[in-house]
Amino acid sequence: MKILIVGANGLLGTGAVAALAEGNEIIKASRSGEVSVDLRDPNSIAAMYEQVGKVDAVIAATGVVPFKSITDLTLADYHAGIDDKVLGQVELVRQGLNYVTDGGSFTLTTGITERAPILTGVVASLANGALESFVLAAAIEMPRGLRINAVSPSVLVEAPGYHEYFPGFEQVTLKACGKAYAKSVNGKKSGHTYKVG
Ligand SMILES: NC(=O)c1ccc[n+]([C@@H]2O[C@H](COP(=O)([O-])OP(=O)(O)OC[C@H]3O[C@@H](n4cnc5c(N)ncnc54)[C@H](OP(=O)(O)O)[C@@H]3O)[C@@H](O)[C@H]2O)c1
């Protein structure tokens, strides 16, 4: 398979690459990647697909949201989180409908705050919940047998900078997350969120 991974050089992207590298052609994209793309810019997404051409699977392992108390969040903070994590991945799918081959797949990245809130995580929860609802709804309208899923990990063992924000949470390994991306790409499910942890 030819698999486009946006965010391939990030932590979760690295896990997806490791799990899928064998037997597949991996195209690594990000703002500073082999293929350049900024998911906040629809023109940049169009240029990326133009450059890469048809693919069998698209994975997004991206998404930046502000972490702030609800009393400190501004409207601009909400816009920033939604524009980056939600609409960046949604636009990757919207434009990708013209580039993913019949029976191919999209896999988006959400996170455990969709189902387990943390302090300062309001925008993260909002973004992750929105994306998972998008996946559920988009799956039943996908043309040409295309599938769409999400991977929703708990905090990673390999991300110590986040551990203090997730007290008492089970930490999961990058390897387990990589397997979830591989299941999404290689499996038959659609409209599904692969929860890790
Ligand atoms: N780390 C965790 O424990 C964890 C747990 C659950 C969920 N998540 C979620 O997983 C996603 C990825 O997290 P991560 O920890 O792997 O992040 P990361 O290590 O910072 O990697 C992010 C990747 O996305 C790329 N990227 C960032 N902004 C982009 C943009 N606007 N357009 C295109 N590419 C962009 C980055 O590369 P460039 O800088 O080159 O663009 C990088 O490759 C996030 O949504 C996060 O909330 C993370």
List the defining traits of the structure above:
alpha/beta, 6 helices, seven-stranded parallel β-sheet, binds NADP nicotinamide-adenine-dinucleotide phosphate, 197 residues, single chain, Rossmann fold
Topology:
Layout: E1 2-6, H1 11-20, E2 25-30, E3 35-36, H2 42-52, E4 55-60, H3 75-96, E5 100-109, H4 122-139, E6 147-153, H5 160-163, H6 174-186, E7 193-196
The structure holds NADP nicotinamide-adenine-dinucleotide phosphate (NAP).
Residues 6-7, 9-13, 30-33, 37-40, 61-64, 84-85, 88, 109, 111, 153, 155-156, 159, 162 line the site of NADP nicotinamide-adenine-dinucleotide phosphate (NAP).
Give a quick rundown of the structure.
The chain is α/β, with parallel strands linked by helices and 197 residues long. It has helices spanning 11-20, 42-52, 75-96, 122-139, 160-163, 174-186; strands at 2-6, 25-30, 35-36, 55-60, 100-109, 147-153, 193-196.
Overall morphology: globular
Oligomer state equals single chain
Order of helical and strand elements: EHEEHEHEHEHHE
What spatial order of strands do you see in the largest sheet? 3-2-1-4-5-6-7
- Taking the alpha carbons of the first and last residues, their distance comes to 28 Å
Name the hetero compounds present. NADP nicotinamide-adenine-dinucleotide phosphate
- CATH overall fold name: Rossmann fold
Strand % is 15-25%
- Residue ranges: pLDDT <50 for 5 or more in a row? none
Question: Count of helical segments?
Answer: 6
By CATH, the architecture is named: 3-Layer(aba) Sandwich
| Global structural class | alpha/beta
What is the CATH class name?
Answer: Alpha Beta
Number of strands: 7
Report the major sheet. Answer: 7 strands, parallel
Tally of discrete structural domains: 1
**Roughly how much helix do the residues carry, as a percent range?**
25-40%
